[in-house]
Amino acid sequence: MVQNLEQSNRRKRVIIGISGASGTVYGWRLLEKLRAAGTAETHLVLTRSGERTAHLEMDKKAADFRGLADYYYPVEDIGSRLASGSAVIDSMVIAPCSIHTMSAIATGITDNLLTRAADVMLKERRQLILMVRETPFHLGHLRNMTALAEMGAIIAPPVPAFYHKPQTAMDIVEHSVDRVLDLLGLPSQDALRWDGGRSARPTSS
Questions:
Q1: Distance from chain centroid for Cα 92
Q2: What is the widest separation between alpha-carbon atoms in the chain?
Q3: Nearest to 187 by CA among 46, 12, 7
Q4: Taking a C-beta distance cutoff of 8 angstroms, is the pair 184, 127 a contact?
Q5: Is the alpha carbon torsion for 120, 122, 125, 128 positive or negative?
Q6: On the CB side of 128, how many CA atoms lie within 13 Å of its CA?
Q7: What is the residue-level pLDDT of the chain in tens, covering all 205 positions?
Q8: Distance separating alpha carbons of residues 53 and 43, to the nearest angstrom
Q9: What secondary structure, in 3-state letters, does the chain show?
Q10: How far apart (Å, rounded) are the C-alpha atoms in residues 177 and 93?
Q11: Whether the Cβ atoms of residue 92 and residue 129 lie closer than 8 Å to each other
């Protein structure tokens, strides 16, 4: 059945892709914050390797992730509406994005729904954000990132900042997720931001 996704005054529609790289907590926290804010309609694509990593790193199942999203699509469902440019989707974030997934997108390999949906975002000139998780990068990685940037993707590795004086690993995760929310145009109300160092070096009265 053909569905019309157009609505007046609709929430922003965002695909959240989670691949098998270490750091599934980034996708989890992004889903949590978008759900709590109610500012976006989320469409989740979780790969099989992403499920395995989530279990190993967070002791969470696919069902836990599905419970945070408005819509969920099996990664094998290449006939999903997300595979068509006619679906009105505003943005897509892959958090985390493995080198395997990044390289497939860069070279136009669309053999599953995650890479096909990303390809659609590029061809329709829509926002695609890749939280690439790898270090160090070799020249092939960097060339693929350059190609993706030239195609319009935003490469946003979760590089931590320390000016907000994080006390826990989740403080570091939170900062990277808040930066992605800024890129989406859906800023978090509790995001910690650089203030020019005034709070770090108060002037004496």
A1: 6
A2: 69
A3: 12
A4: yes
A5: positive
A6: 26
A7: 344 444 446 899 999 999 999 999 999 999 999 999 999 999 999 999 999 999 999 999 999 999 999 999 999 999 999 999 999 999 999 999 999 999 999 999 999 999 999 999 999 999 999 999 999 999 999 999 999 999 999 999 999 999 999 999 999 999 999 999 999 999 999 999 988 876 544 444 4
A8: 20
A9: CCCCCCCCCCCEEEEEEECCCCCHHHHHHHHHHHHHHCCEEEEEEECHHHHHHHHHHHCCCHHHHHCCCCEEEECCCCCCHHHCCCCCCCEEEEEEECHHHHHHHHCCCCCCHHHHHHHHHHHCCCEEEEEECCCCCCHHHHHHHHHHHHHCCEECCCCCCCCCCCCCHHHHHHHHHHHHHHHHCCCCCCCCCCCCCCCCCCCCC
A10: 11
A11: yes
Q: Which two tokens stand for residue 193?
A: 């931001």
Tokens linked to 161: 């900042």
Q: Which tokens go with 22?
A: 């270490």
- Whole-number Å distance between alpha carbons of 112 and 50: 14
The total number of residues shown for the chain amounts to: 205
Give me 184's structure tokens: 């989406």
